[in-house]
């Protein structure tokens, strides 16, 4: 079983919308996933606008890819590089630690992740 950044079993990030590189709901690490979609984040309006402005529109539905478009409150397995870019810009969305793959701590300090931890239910 894959582990999360807390050292526990990796929990699903979202089944609606279905996320993850493998579209299995989890932020698994995979050699085929060059974007490292391993960080589970809760979308915010601020982040969705930021990512649209830097070239990755996650809000607009793309039916041809079975992608409904994201809205604030949705959980999504983000590309680690995009989250780091948003963090640097002060626009990173909160992280669901239980659903974030353990490999993320190789690139992001655990204290930074805890500081951005999602506090919702």
Describe this structure in words.
This protein has 121 residues and is an alpha+beta fold. It contains 3 helices and 2 strands; from the N terminus they run βαβαα. The chain has a two-stranded antiparallel sheet with strand order 1-2.
**What is the number of helices?**
3
Question: Segments where pLDDT lies below 50 for 5+ residues?
Answer: none
Write down the overall mean pLDDT.
95
* N-to-C order of helices and strands: EHEHH
Anisotropy-based shape: globular
Biggest sheet statistics? 2 strands, antiparallel
Number of E-type strands: 2
Helix content: 10-25%
Distance between the termini: 24 Å
What strand line-up does the widest sheet have?
Answer: 1-2
Whole-angstrom Rg: 13 Å
Structural class: alpha+beta
| β-strand amount | 5-15%
Question: What are the SSEs and their pairings?
Answer:
Elements: E1 39-42, H1 45-53, E2 75-78, H2 80-88, H3 110-115
Antiparallel strand pairs: 1-2
């Amino acid at each position: 079983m894959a582990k999360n950044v807390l050292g526990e079993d990796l929990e699903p990030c979202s089944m609606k919308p279905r996320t993850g590189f493998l579209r299995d709901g989890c932020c698994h690490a995979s050699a085929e996933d060059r974007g490292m979609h391993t960080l589970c984040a809760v979308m915010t309006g601020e982040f969705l606008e930021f990512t649209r402005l830097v070239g990755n529109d996650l809000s607009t539905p793309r039916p041809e890819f079975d992608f409904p478009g994201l809205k604030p409150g949705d959980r999504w397995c983000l590309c680690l590089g995009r989250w780091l870019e948003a963090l640097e810009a002060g626009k990173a969305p909160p992280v669901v630690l239980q659903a974030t793959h353990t490999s993320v701590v190789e690139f992001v300090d655990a204290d930074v992740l805890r500081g951005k931890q999602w506090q919702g239910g």
